[in-house]
Design goal:
It is a single chain. Helix 14 (391-404) packs across helix 16. The chain contains 18 helices and twelve strands. Strand 2 and strand 3 (91-98) form a beta hairpin. The protein has a six-stranded mixed β-sheet with strand order 1-4-9-8-5-6. A two-stranded antiparallel sheet has the order 2-3. A two-stranded parallel sheet has the order 7-10. The chain has 504 residues and is α+β, with helices and mostly antiparallel strands.
Length: 504
């Protein structure tokens, strides 16, 4: 019926019927049939090849099915003005805002999990089987790293990088439109010249280029373990691109509420064109995280990922994604820009408690958990632009000092406000004033020592000629780098001033 309708509408029916006729004659006529079909495509008024039309049809069918499975994206594009900051001039950018009012507890975004890109959803069956066995059955990555954080980090990296590279090699990928948009993604630190990398020396991110190179090379070299890439090995360029895309577009998805004790959050890439321009925000309270849910649709269970409104949100409000726990310096090293207000301060110095254990069941670890000091990140010294340390660091350091020096009491759980307070009061009024005073003195000595060291390090790694070069440079990358270094210098200078006032 479709063919007859086409014949009545177009004189090209003769060529199409010829194609079907030749196919029915003999296998040797297949090439001639294909030529006839190709001519139909090229003469149908479209500039696309038959393959492109077929690929587009496959993608259209995939996304139509995803929509039937419940895809909901209550967002639309809007041009907003971004004021000058961090060495970048004022400019317009594309923001994603709510297309409708979204009330508390309702989904802003609802995405069937098959529309995301990760190991479990990749359409390359051979790669999925090989990679699953390598990462989770043989646990090869865990054998290469001692730190559990590194084990998880690099496992997630490979579980996303190889499906992403495989998908990008496929011209008929259902994510082709999004992949084409992502082709320009680059890791900022890996694109710097030798001259520009000199500005990173002495900063908290002086090792950023080495760190990003390590991630790139890990993807590049580990690919030789998979027969999937044997005929066409992964290139360094592909590995570098994969790192950039993962850092920009991969997001943590928390497991269902009932499974959070047994399952860890996993990283997923969101290859949806509508989400490509969603901006990042440094505050996890503003940038809403994603969670996995199982929804009953009739007799079917649908595995979806949701972004849930934490309050009533009006139409036109911009939505954001969280880039992770990154300072402005770390944001610059990865993405080439920072934030005007970043709740995570400058610094990367971790003071590991003497009694720290990776075993979460030890008595000390259970006590640390009561104060939300459940990872070594809580003991990482970070400073805001005024030179004050983050509250969580102050709290966790004090708790650690009390436990280590035999002054700990469970009653501290009722004094969270005092544990968070910095600078400390001039005088404590409770009976344990001596232990608190000693803890504060030790904490302040450590802060002052670190800030003095970093301030001196910044001075020692910069000469007057290089400083003059970057201070007057009009190059946009130079300006971003110089602002980042200046922000660190001011932060540590303020830190020294604050710590010396506390000393006196």
């Amino acid at each position: 019926v479709k063919m007859l309708s086409y014949c009545m509408l177009s004189w090209r029916c003769t060529r199409l019927l010829l194609a079907f006729y030749l196919r029915s004659l003999a296998p040797g006529s297949l090439a001639l049939a294909k030529n006839a079909e190709t001519e139909v495509c090229h003469n149908s008024g479209s500039n696309e090849s038959c393959g492109a039309i077929s690929n587009r049809s496959t993608a259209d069918n995939f996304w139509a099915e995803v929509k039937r499975q419940g895809l909901q994206l209550h967002i639309k594009k809007k041009q907003v003005q971004e004021k000058a900051f961090g060495g970048r001039p004022a400019h317009n950018r594309t923001a994603m805002v709510l297309s409708d009012d979204v009330f508390y507890g309702r989904a802003i975004l609802k995405i069937p999990r098959r529309a995301l890109l990760t190991l479990e959803t990749t359409r390359q069956v051979k790669l999925r089987d090989e990679l699953s066995r390598f990462l989770y059955e043989e646990e090869r990555v865990k054998k290469w790293f001692n730190s559990s954080n590194d084990q998880d980090d690099f496992t997630h990296l490979l579980s996303l990088a190889y499906p992403l590279i495989a998908e990008n090699r496929d011209p008929s990928s259902v994510f082709r439109e999004w992949l084409d948009l992502a082709q320009a993604d680059r890791v900022f630190a890996l694109e710097l010249t030798h001259r520009q990398r000199r500005v990173l020396a002495g900063t908290t991110v002086e090792g950023a280029e080495l760190e990003m190179s390590h991630r790139r090379d890990f993807i590049w070299h580990t690919a030789t373990n998979f027969s999937y890439f044997q005929a066409s090995p992964v290139t360094m360029k592909e590995a570098s691109w994969a790192v950039a895309v993962i850092m920009r577009h991969a997001r943590v998805v928390h497991p269902h509420q009932d499974d959070r004790e047994n399952k860890h959050p996993r990283m997923h890439i969101f290859p949806l064109v509508e989400m490509f321009h969603i901006a990042m925000h440094p505050d996890p309270g503003v940038a809403i995280t994603f969670q996995q849910e199982v929804i009953i649709d009739g007799k079917r269970e649908e595995d979806v990922v949701l972004q849930i409104a934490r309050r009533d949100m009006p139409k036109g409000e911009e939505i954001f994604v969280w880039p992770g726990r990154l300072s402005n310096s770390e944001m610059v090293a990865r993405h080439g820009f920072g934030f005007e207000k970043n709740p995570l301060g400058i610094g990367r110095n971790i003071t590991q408690p003497p009694n720290w254990s990776e075993n979460k069941k030890t008595k000390e670890r259970r006590e640390y958990d009561l104060y939300n000091c459940s990872s070594l990140e809580a003991f990482e010294l970070r400073l805001n632009s005024r030179g004050y340390p983050m509250r969580n660091f102050v709290r966790c350091y004090r708790v650690s000092w009390f436990i280590t020096n035999g002054w700990y009491s469970p009653s501290l759980k009722k004094r969270i406000r005092e544990l968070n307070k910095w600078p400390p009061p001039d005088k404590y009024t409770k009976d344990d004033w001596l232990s608190w005073t000693q803890a504060d003195a030790e904490l302040n000595r450590m802060i002052l020592s670190y800030c003095q060291q970093m301030r001196q390090q910044l001075k020692d790694t910069m000469d007057s000629e290089t400083a003059a070069d970057f201070r007057h440079s009009k190059d946009p990358v130079d300006r971003v780098l110089w602002h980042m270094r200046g922000e660190e210098s001011r932060t540590f200078k303020n830190c020294i001033s604050v710590a010396k006032k506390i000393q006196t």
